């Protein structure tokens, strides 16, 4: 695909910003033809792709050798998205459901956002996916789909060979490269562990706190919940030890509400606690969703 065709492919993307498509396409080509290792290529190309697609978040996903499904190896912008946590996990499920399709997928999510999934292939083998969460504005959600699919194909025509080439540098085979990505995923797990430790420490210091009003307490519990959700975490219920969501509920005997632990026990939604100040908060991994097989 020559530069003019590429630029044309991105012209149909709904946008209100003043990104100069031609300049960004030039940058993307340069990064794709460059010689950075994959670890640097992913964030550099994502940065440009977000601008080209008027997207707020994006990720590259790959399936490590021996793994059944994909894992994100480079992610940007998801923490800042104004999307509910359930919508965010739906987006992840979309990637895991669509990465083996032959062509780009455009799926509506909460307006004005659309989820774009570009399968990354090595010949006939699906090896990963490019995921973007773009803002399509107030337009008819069906309208920009064709434009997005066209632009995704254009982006993939540059990116796929760039990734394959980097995976095959020298003696490196696709298998070795996916193993390298698996190692990267391991490093990310290590980072997540230290992040969890930092969150644990900070929450531990808040024992005994209350924020002066029901609204403030509720705002605080929402902030905690958003933070935990981002990192796939929950708090431990001090009463039964189960993974729970911390909430602040109205209570006739406590003006500022009471802190409760919301969890499902034996299949029933149950609240424990009822503290007027924050009890000890300990974090734990979010349990897998009920009724869904772990893949
Ligand atoms: Zn409990």
Automatic annotation (TrEMBL):
<keyword id="KW-0175">Coiled coil</keyword>
<feature type="coiled-coil region">
    <location>
        <begin position="174"/>
        <end position="201"/>
    </location>
</feature>
<protein>
    <recommendedName>
        <fullName>GAF domain-containing protein</fullName>
    </recommendedName>
</protein>
């Amino acid at each position: 695909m020559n530069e003019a065709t590429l630029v044309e492919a991105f012209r149909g993307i709904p946008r209100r910003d003043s990104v100069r498509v031609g300049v960004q396409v030039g940058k993307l080509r340069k990064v794709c033809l460059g010689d950075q290792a994959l670890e640097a290529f992913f964030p550099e190309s994502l940065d440009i792709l977000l601008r080209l697609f008027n997207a707020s978040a994006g990720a590259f996903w790959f399936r490590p050798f021996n793994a059944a499904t994909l894992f994100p190896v480079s992610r940007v912008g998801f923490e800042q998205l104004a999307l509910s946590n359930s919508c965010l996990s739906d987006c992840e499920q979309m990637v895991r459901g669509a990465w083996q399709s032959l062509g780009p997928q455009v799926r509506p999510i909460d307006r004005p956002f659309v989820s774009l999934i570009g399968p990354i292939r090595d010949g006939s083998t699906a090896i990963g996916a490019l995921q973007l969460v773009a803002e399509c504005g107030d337009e008819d959600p069906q309208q920009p789909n064709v434009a997005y699919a066209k632009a995704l194909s254009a982006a993939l025509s540059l990116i796929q060979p760039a990734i394959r080439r980097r995976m095959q540098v020298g003696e490196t085979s696709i298998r070795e490269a996916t193993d390298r990505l698996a190692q990267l995923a391991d490093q990310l797990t290590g980072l997540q562990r230290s992040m969890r430790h930092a969150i644990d420490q900070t929450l531990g210091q808040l024992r005994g706190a209350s924020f002066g009003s029901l609204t403030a307490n509720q705002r605080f519990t929402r902030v905690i919940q958003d933070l935990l959700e981002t990192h796939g975490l929950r708090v431990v219920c001090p009463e039964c030890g189960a993974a729970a969501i911390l909430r602040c509920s109205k209570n006739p005997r406590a003006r500022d509400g009471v802190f409760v632990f919301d969890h499902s026990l034996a299949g029933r939604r149950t609240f424990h606690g009822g503290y007027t100040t924050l009890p000890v908060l300990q974090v734990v991994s979010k349990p897998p969703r009920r009724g869904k097989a772990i893949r």
